[in-house]
Amino acid sequence: MSAAVFHQPSLARRIAPVFQGFDGFLAFAVLLLACAGLLTMYSSGYDHGTRFMDHGRNMLLAGFIMFVVAQVPPQRLMFFAVPVYVLGVSLLVAVMLFGITKKGATRWINVGVVIQPSEILKIAMPLMLAWWFQRREGQLRTLDYVVATVLLAVPVGLIMKQPDLGTALLVLAAGMSVIFFAGLSWKLIVPPVIIGLIAVALIVGFESQLCADGLDWRILHDYQKQRICTLLDPTKDPLGKGFHIIQGMIAIGSGGVGGKGFMQGTQTHLEFIPERTTDFIFAAYSEEFGLAGNLALIAGFIFLIFRGLAIALDAPTLFSRLLAGAVTMIFFTYAFVNMGMVSGILPVVGVPLPFISYGGTAMVTLGLGLGILMSIARAKRLVQS
Questions:
Q1: Quick check: 24 and 374 in contact, CB under 8 A?
Q2: Could you read off the pLDDT of 233-290 as tens digits, one per residue?
Q3: Terminus of the chain with fewer CB atoms < 10 Å: N or C?
Q4: Exposure string (b/e) for 142-156, b if CB count within 10 Å is 16 or more?
């Protein structure tokens, strides 16, 4: 009788289950945007210390986080919703009481290492609200939306108080996305939108009176008022508060249709563009790659957003659908606000361009978001298989 022979599976066979169910379309979109980010960072940051190498390291870190989070089933993510939200809000309160102040803003706290707790809420907020609506599934009432609004308003108010308008806007957008996707009635959506449009029209129409020196807007900090007034007329202080917007628009316009070419941007390399590796990197990209490059970049973001919404649509549970939809809208808000402020159609706020701008904290947040989307897509595919 011959002895039985056992063949040890190859390394590829042993690793394959770990990658099974990953969404290829989402991964492809992220890969394209990451390549665009590395290309742009090399051009705008090659003479800016170690920015290019650090950007590559941050991308690898985000990729690792995405891979790890993708292994966590969506039902397990629900377990973290309440603890992470409570931790984030508690840290925001601690920042208000014991925080570290830099450049007039109190946004950081030392817990052994210096962290910015508001970043936690970008993911904790949609997690918490998705958990809440999952619990109330099938019995939603108006009171449930009121509770959700309070859960959203508390951290947004604490972040606004720091003050940090950019992060508050991102957290608000993430939370409102969950509330909207949970079935909020259009009767409650349309009136605030109309009021907002009327307010914008009034601000534009009465800009000269509202932006007069010494006029206190009360509901906004002085620097926030200055940003809005600078947006309406950057030429009032072209070498001061309006410098960022003016130089950004000059760089975008000078790129023309085809751009000046890789590493040929004069506004960028002569250092006319402020923050050319972070918040205003879109201006550097536009100058070198022009309208054609902009359309390609926007198409990449649109593909990413539509793929994220498709994952949300196919998700098996209400929690997964709401969470995937909200995370996708975070990417939309990041891209829309950054491109809008650099182009001079939105006030300047500290919002980076996903995968393109330099920044470790933002890249970690993006990695977490992508990991959640991959987890939801993977769970659906594994169930089907």
A1: no
A2: 888 888 778 888 888 899 999 889 998 988 888 888 888 888 888 889 999 999 999 9
A3: N
A4: eebbeebeebbeebb
Task: Give the Cα separation of 298 and 305 in Å (integer).
Answer: 10
Single out the residue of 356, 313, 314 nearest to residue 331, CA to CA.
Answer: 356
Q: Which candidate, 44, 33, 34, 42, places its Cα nearest to that of 274?
A: 44
Q: What pLDDT was estimated at residue 360? A: 81
Contact predicate 163/224, CB 8 Å = yes
Is residue 54 packed enough to be buried (19+ CB in 10 Å), middle (13-18) or exposed (0-12)?
A: middle
DSSP 8-state assignment for residue 2:
P
Q: Which residues contact 16 (CB under 8 A, 6 or more apart)?
A: none
- Please tell me the distance from the alpha carbon of residue 119 to that of residue 171, in angstroms, as a whole number: 9
CA 254 – CA 288 distance, rounded (Å) = 9
Which element (helix H / strand E) includes 108?
Answer: strand 105-110
pTM confidence score: 0.87
Candidates 16, 17, 21; CA nearest to 375 is 21
- The whole-number average pLDDT for the span 346-375 is 89
What tokens were used for 358? 């330099």
211-217, long-range: CB < 8 A, 24+ apart: none
Residue 44's Cβ-count burial label (10 Å; 0-12, 13-18, 19+) is buried
CA of residue 142 relative to chain centroid, distance: 29
| Tokens found for residue 274 | 């402020």
**Of 217, 227, 208, nearest to 169 (Cα)?**
227
CB 117 within 8 A of CB 124: no
Whole-angstrom Cα distance, residue 382 to residue 223? 50
Q: Is 191 in contact with 209 (CB distance < 8 Å)?
A: no
The answer to whether residues 307 and 26 touch, using CB atoms and an 8 Å cutoff, is: yes
Phi-psi region of 263 (alpha: psi -120 to 50; beta: other; left: phi over 0): left
Answer yes or no: is pLDDT of 312 > 60: yes
Please state, in angstroms and rounded to a whole number, the distance separating the CA atoms of residues 33 and 26: 11
Of 333, 379, 348, 302, nearest to 125 by C-alpha is: 333
pLDDT at 283: 92
